[in-house]
UniProtKB/TrEMBL annotation:
It comes from Melospiza melodia. Interacts with RIGI (via tandem CARD domain); the interaction is direct. Interacts (via GOLD domain) with SLC18A3; the interaction is direct. Interacts with SLC5A7 (via GOLD domain); the interaction is direct. This is SEC14-like protein 1. PROSITE patterns: CRAL_TRIO, GOLD, PRELI_MSF1. GO terms for cellular component: cytosol; Golgi apparatus. Pfam families: CRAL_TRIO, CRAL_TRIO_N, PRELI. Residues 198-210 have a biased composition (Polar residues). Residues 500-653 form the GOLD domain.
Length: 694
């Protein structure tokens, strides 16, 4: 299928032609190396082509197929302007070591623009544009040729076997693996790459389940019972992400269903799914979300006036949540409770939804990973568009979207009034595209007709207020008495109380503005312990000692409160005039911590005085022109603020006689995720080593 791209490919308009310049085949036909000169029509401004004096650019591509090892290696470099621009690319297709029916695809490349007539920036943008376009088409192209092969009746290619004369020698030097039922046909590799990596399955026919450990391949019955239909590629992504968690995460490992939700939310892009899952687990740890159903009781105001509740299930077995938004006094609830209490209540609803999904999976004997929400807008009016109420709603949507992806199976919006388009205009930009596709909106009594409520909910459980016969125990809502309203000061204090029930504090770290914490030590040989999560960006962790106290902390003007925690701050203690080695000293070597890592450690103090824990912005070192950073790293850095980091931390000082962990100085244990368990500060979990464990 890959070879059919040559000498030209109609699906790649810029690929004009190619000529074979060298070709080699081994006697046993195991090795086939072919080198081509490819002619490309780059999509560049005509003026730039005229200045450069060329209409086409030429690349040399060398493909090395090893049928014995079942690998295909592709190397490409530019021939045109090679003295000004250097592009090197390498792609490889290999057989997955744990499942022979999967093909692994890796691609890496570098772009080095030395000079280009003063248009260096333009050339870089053109290269990125072309590369992105080709990456998106890669899978489409290989599937096109696979389908072409199938139409010609070619659905199976026999595995290569050595000639009889060579069989004895080959069997000793290259032990063969068990023969798989079909050969893997590699996917397309693009020509102007910078960097990309993914694993694809290109098996031409379904294979029977093979024996293996649960870590290598998921059991087919388990997938059908708890996870639903997964392609081999999706199954591979789940296994790899779960394995990464097991290797790097010291706390509670999320269930496969939970991991799968984040993968689906990012179309099974492992890097993107891992990023949002990491942020979500850190968020859950900070706000103790895992224990919200057991430890938090909603205020009586919510129980009386929040017009929502669980009500049986829909025809697909999904838990059904009914919300009578039109009957709810959102302004009164916000005035009486504040944003944070409302948000916490919605989180408890989502946690209950996850629990009900697990129960329904057991009851119905099939995977149920989402719920259906029925929203009745009867009574919705301009009062619901009160600005603080809309602000609270947007905040809730933002948090739920980030931490409960792919949990909403369907949203039925009934009796939408004329004011609804106004609310929808305000809210819809904050809702993910995939989520919006699950919305069904009915005006007036349209829900009673064809394609209405009866298509999704059994007649027996349609609520009475919608014309059904089932009594619904959802509170009717109504106006919240003004006597229950709270002042702004009371609400602010209550908000802080709600979100600081965790022992952790949040801090923002900026370029040139580290966050510092002061710890005064009276008795030598005390032990300073810490536990922190790097929520965003990369930081450098330092510990300093000073005999004299620094000036009172001053709030940095840059330190903005974070969205998820009003406690995010930035405090600097070390005076600008202080000199390292004279006014204060570094007691440990700096520790570089990457985004998403959780770090626990301890330091045994040698002297009394003042110790300063510092989290500092970590700047990437400048790269030489011959050692450019990978483009996926560059792109990732563009997605976040380039000069801001976020840290969530906890510190404690204990006497050496009470310290049960290792007495090794600056002993830190790294994890790719923060722990979900409450006992994150237990020093007994530290590794007994002075080396940094990652």
């Amino acid at each position: 299928a890959y070879e059919r791209r040559f000498p030209t490919c109609p699906l790649i308009p810029m690929f004009v032609a190619s000529d074979t310049v060298n070709e080699y085949k081994s006697e046993d036909e195991a090795i086939h190396v072919i080198e081509r000169r490819c002619k490309l029509d780059i999509d560049a401004p005509r003026l730039l082509k005229k200045i450069a004096g060329v209409d086409y650019v030429y690349f040399v591509q060398k493909n090395s197929l090893n049928r014995r090892e079942r690998t295909l290696h592709i190397e490409a470099y530019n021939e045109t302007f090679s003295n000004r621009v250097i592009i090197n690319e390498h792609c490889s297709y290999t057989v997955h070591p744990d499942n022979e029916d999967w093909t692994c695809f890796e691609q890496s490349a570098s772009l080095d623009i030395k000079s280009f007539f003063g248009f260096e920036s333009t050339v870089e943008k053109i290269a990125m544009k072309q590369y992105t376009s080709n990456i998106k088409k890669g899978k489409e192209i290989i599937e096109y040729y696979l389908k072409q092969l199938e139409e010609e009746g070619i659905t199976f290619v026999p595995r290569w076997t050595p000639p009889v004369a060579c069989k004895s020698e080959s069997s000793t030097s290259h032990p063969r693996r068990p023969v798989s039922p079909a050969i893997n046909i590699p996917e397309s590799a693009t020509k102007e790459g910078l960097s990309s990596k993914e694993i694809l399955n290109t098996s031409s026919s379904p294979s029977e389940p093979t024996a293996g450990t649960p870590d290598d391949k998921l059991d087919a019955d388990y997938i059908k019972r708890y996870l639903g239909d997964l392609t081999p590629m999706q199954e591979s992504c789940l296994i790899r992400l779960r394995q990464w968690l097991q290797e790097t995460h010291k706390g509670k490992i999320p269930k496969d269903e939970h991991i799968l939700r984040f993968l689906r939310a990012r179309d099974f892009n492992i890097d993107k799914a891992r990023e949002i899952l990491c942020q979500s687990l850190t968020w859950r740890k900070q706000h103790q979300v895992d224990y919200i159903l057991d430890t938090w009781n909603p205020p009586q105001v919510l129980q009386d006036y929040y017009a929502g509740g669980w009500h049986h299930h829909d025809k697909d077995g999904r838990p059904l949540y009914v919300l009578r938004l039109g009957q709810m006094d959102t302004k009164g609830l916000v005035r009486a409770l504040g944003e944070e209490a409302l948000l916490r209540y919605v989180l408890s609803i989502n946690e209950e939804g996850l629990r009900r999904c697990e129960e329904n999976t057991k009851v119905f004997g099939r995977p149920i990973s989402s719920w259906t929400c029925l929203v009745d807008l009867e009574g919705l009016n301009m009062r619901h568009l009160w600005r603080p109420g809309v602000k609270a709603l947007l905040r809730i949507i933002e948090v739920v979207e980030a931490n409960y992806p792919e949990t909403l199976g369907r949203l039925l919006i009934l009796r939408a009034p004329r004011v609804f388009p106004v609310l929808w205009t305000l809210v819809s930009p904050f809702i993910d595209d995939n989520t919006r596709k699950k919305f069904l909106i009915y005006a007036g009594n349209d829900y009673q007709g064809p394609g209405g409520l009866l298509d999704y909910i059994d007649k027996e459980i349609i609520p009475d207020f919608l014309g059904g016969e089932c009594m619904c125990e959802v509170p009717e809502g109504g106006l919240v008495p003004k006597s229950l309203y709270r002042t702004a000061e009371e609400l602010e204090n209550e908000d802080i109380k709600l979100w600081t029930e965790t022992i952790y504090q949040s801090a923002s770290v900026f370029k040139g503005a580290p966050h510092e914490v002061l710890i005064q030590i009276v008795d030598a040989s005390s032990v300073i312990t810490w536990d922190f999560d790097v929520c965003k960006g990369d930081i450098v962790f330092n510990i300093f000692h000073s005999k004299r106290a620094p000036q009172p902390p001053k709030k940095d003007s840059l330190g903005a409160h974070s969205i998820t925690s009003p406690g995010g701050n930035n405090v600097q203690l070390i005076d600008k005039v202080w000199q390292l080695g004279r006014d204060y000293s570094m007691v440990e070597s700096p520790l570089i911590c990457k985004e998403g890592e959780s770090v626990q450690g301890s330091h045994v103090t040698r002297w009394p005085g003042f110790y300063i824990l510092q989290w500092k912005f970590h700047s990437m070192p400048a790269c030489a022109t011959t050692n450019l950073p990978r483009v996926d790293d560059v792109l990732a850095s563009l997605q976040v603020s380039s000069h801001k980091c976020k840290v969530m931390y906890y510190t404690e000082v204990i006497g050496s006689e009470d310290f049960r962990g290792s007495m090794t100085s600056l002993e830190s244990s790294h994890s790719g995720f923060s722990q979900l368990s409450a006992a994150t500060t237990s020093s007994s979990q530290s590794h007994s080593s002075s080396m940094i464990s990652r």
